[in-house]
Amino acid sequence: MSRNCAALAGRVRHRRREDADRMFAGDSNRMTEQYDEIQKAQTEQLPWYARLKEYFLPKVQPPANLAVSLVQIAEPRSWRFYLIFLCGFLIFSAIGNFFFALLQNGFAGDWPFLLRLCGSCAGLGLLAYMLFLQEWKRQERSLETSLRMASVPLNAPLRSDARHYRGLITAVDLNRPDAAITPIKFHTNIELSDEKRLKYCWCLIVKEKHIEDKFLDFRMSLSATTGVEFFPVYLNSGSDVHEIYERVDEIYWNDISSKGLKATDVVTDITPGFKTMSVGMALACLMKYDRAVEYVESDKKMGPPDLTSANMVSLDINFFVKQKKHLTRQT
Asked: What residue ranges are annotated as transmembrane (predicted)?
């Protein structure tokens, strides 16, 4: 009897294991199909040159230099890249004509013409080199760079070389708005003409209950004393870096132009808000060379930050890589 029970229990366990394996295989297949559908939908939303990369590069076995080169050439670039390519084409064509003329005439050709041809090649080469330097400076930022910081005290007198902005982008915690009020007052309390004073402020605010009423009180209390016009930018989450990045990027592309401002007239203050909000705002500014970033530096040795003795720190993000190093897993 006990043997029959043990055998029956063994068959039941085996059947359950088979059912679990079959269920897991079905779930795995469904997850794979859903993943393939998501990948296909994302690929269809990509531009044509990015879809070309997705189509060729995973299927090409090393070496894939030719495929990579063709795709990179097809990818849109700035007008400097195409101008450099045109200069190089003209230079190599002129060099070919130079040697063809020498060989055709037995090295007894029209030397004034050949000298003018050499001068044209040198001029085109110099132009291409200058354009290359400009394009290299505007390349994507590298992790191995040093940021130059210039500290400006909040209560310092106006300096002739001080940089002031007419627009401000910052995060605002309406329950504790002191960190956001500090940069606003810094850009409005100093002695500036009306053309240079802070006029517009875009506030990144996380959605919560009665948030519109709180923002209305915040705007009315500051607009009367500073003369700044405030615009709310509501976020679904304060921890979604991608959403914060997109909101700040939309402000730079759409909102500031409607106020007659340029990107160089606006600064992003990353002091208030969560760390993820600061990261999203900083990333949106680092992707473009004409977007300024600042933060409020304060003494945090004892208790909360002392904003009365804080310094306004401006980050110089208009840099380029001077030396590229190979990164390893240890670094």
From this structure: 81-101, 113-133
Residues contacting 33, CB < 8 A, separation 6+: none
* 259: amino acid identity, one letter: K
Residue 310 host element (H or E): strand 306-316
CA–CA gap between residue 41 and residue 298 (Å, rounded): 47
Q: Per-residue confidence at 178, pLDDT binned at 50, 70, 90?
A: confident
d(CA 276, CA 243): 10
Of residues 163, 202, 205, the one with CA closest to residue 186: 163
Q: Which of 158, 186, 149, 152 is nearest to 170 (CA)?
A: 186
pTM listed for this prediction: 0.49
CA nearest neighbour of 168 among 196, 197, 198 = 198
Spatial contact of 297 and 118, defined as CB atoms under 8 Å apart: no
Q: What is the pLDDT of residues 107-164, one digit of tens each?
A: 555 667 667 777 777 777 777 777 666 655 555 443 333 333 334 444 444 333 346 7
Q: What angle separates helix 79-104 from helix 111-137, to the nearest 10 degrees?
A: 160
Q: Domain 148-316 belongs to what topology? A: Rossmann fold (3.40.50)
Q: Are 87 and 128 in contact (CB under 8 A)?
A: yes
Concatenating the DSSP letter of every residue in 4-68 gives HHHHHHHHHHHHHHHHHHHHHHHHHHHHHHHHHHHHHHHHHHS-HHHHHHHHHTTTPPSP-HHHH
Q: How far is CA 258 from CA 3, 20, 255, 262, 269, in A?
A: 85, 60, 5, 10, 21
Residue 158 CA, chain-centre distance (Å), reads 32
Q: Averaged over 200-211, what is the pLDDT?
A: 85
Entry field: residues in the chain: 331
Return the bridge partners of 267, or none.
168, 292
